[in-house]
Amino acid sequence: MNFYDFQIVFQEVPGEISLCFYITGCPLSCDGCHSPFLWNKDKGDELKLSLYTSLLEKYQAIASCVVFMGGEWEQGTLIDYLKIAQSHGFKTCLYTGQDWIPKSIANHLDYVKLGPWVAEKGGLDQITTNQQFIDLKTKTNINHLFLKPQYHD
Predict the structure, then answer these.
(1) Cα distance between residue 60 and residue 14, in whole Å
(2) In sequence order, what are the beta bridge partners of 4?
(3) Cα(103)–Cα(3) distance, integer angstroms
(4) For 118, how many CA atoms within 13 A lie in the half-sphere containing its CB?
(5) pLDDT per residue over 57-106, tens digit each?
(6) Measured between alpha carbons, how far is 114 from 8 in angstroms, rounded to an integer?
(7) What is the H or E stretch that residue 70 is in?
(8) Would you list the DSSP string of 6-58?
């Protein structure tokens, strides 16, 4: 499994500071995708187990969640890495453009973002979005946590 980048992020999972891995090889090629550089599976570097575990250990006191931007096409490796994150005490999340994920992956996730990018519908911060952010432990759609409050005079 190759990754293009790793970042600490604050907005991808509400209420969590997350370690985010951008996985290459996305087969969806959504029109208007903000990360088309992730389509090429040969981009980036192999996410070696030693690097992955060292990053988990380094940020364990700071972050509470591990997010994979893609990677469901590398199901076996993704599941192994989700299990490792969980064994280190992290919550886990997958962002996918698919409308569903296999139960074998879902069993190792706390959160999942489902749905392809559709520009005219917007992202999770839009009430019109086709995407869903699901808390898998409660089986609840929590898109409302991405919406900005509306203030009126």
Answers:
(1) 18
(2) none
(3) 23
(4) 13
(5) 999 999 999 999 999 999 999 999 999 999 999 999 999 999 999 999 99
(6) 21
(7) none
(8) EEEESSSSTT--EEEEEES--S---TT-S-GGGS-TTSSEE--HHHHHHHHHH
Query: What long-range pairs does 134-137 form, CB within 8 A, spacing at least 24?
Result: 135/110, 135/111, 136/106, 136/109, 136/110, 136/111, 136/112, 137/110
Eight-state DSSP code of residue 59: H
Q: Which fold has domain 2-146?
A: TIM Barrel (3.20.20)
CA distance 90 to 28: 28
Q: Give me the half-sphere count of Cα atoms (radius 13 Å) on the Cβ side of residue 124.
A: 20
The count of other CB atoms within 10 Å of the CB of residue 6 is 16
- pTM of the predicted model, to two decimals? 0.93
The burial of 80, by beta-carbon neighbours within 10 Å (0-12 exposed, 13-18 middle, 19 or more buried), is given as middle
